[in-house]
């Protein structure tokens, strides 16, 4: 993420999200399926990697 493009990738049902442009990472808290979130991010043209949940 070299710009704030992913910051505008909104999906109804997300409880909380954090975008780190420095780390190129998005952290999302939601009850929605992962694939729903992944597809929204993919639409921005950014790569998606699954990370372990906390």
Share of β-strand residues: 15-25%
How many β-strand stretches?
A: 2
Q: Percent range for helical residues?
A: 10-25%
Question: What is the topology, as strand order, of the major beta sheet?
Answer: 1-2
| Chain oligomer state | single chain
Main β-sheet description: 2 strands, antiparallel
Distance between the termini: 22 Å
What is the N-to-C succession of helices and strands?
A: EEH
| Mean pLDDT metric | 79
Count of individual domains? 1
> Which term fits the overall shape?
globular
Category by helix and strand content: alpha+beta
How many helical elements? 1
**What's the gyration radius in Å?**
10 Å
Poorly predicted regions? none
GO molecular function: metal ion binding
Organism: Linderina pennispora
Pfam families: HMA
Protein name: HMA domain-containing protein
Report on the architecture of this protein.
This protein is an alpha+beta fold and 54 residues long. The protein has one domain (5-42). Helix content is 17%, strand content 24%. It contains one helix and two strands, in the order ββα. It has a two-stranded antiparallel sheet with strand order 1-2. The longest helix is centred in the last third of the chain and has 9 residues, at 34-42. The protein is globular. It starts with 13 loop residues before the first strand and ends in a 12-residue tail after the last helix. The mean pLDDT is 79. Residues 9-46 form the HMA domain. InterPro entries: HMA_dom, HMA_dom_sf. This is HMA domain-containing protein. It comes from Linderina pennispora. It holds the Pfam family HMA.
């Amino acid at each position: 993420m070299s710009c704030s493009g992913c910051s505008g990738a909104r999906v109804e049902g997300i409880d909380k999200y954090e975008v780190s442009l420095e780390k190129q990472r998005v952290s999302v808290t939601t009850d929605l399926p992962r694939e729903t979130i992944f597809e929204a991010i993919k639409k921005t043209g950014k790569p998606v990697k699954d990370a372990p949940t906390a």
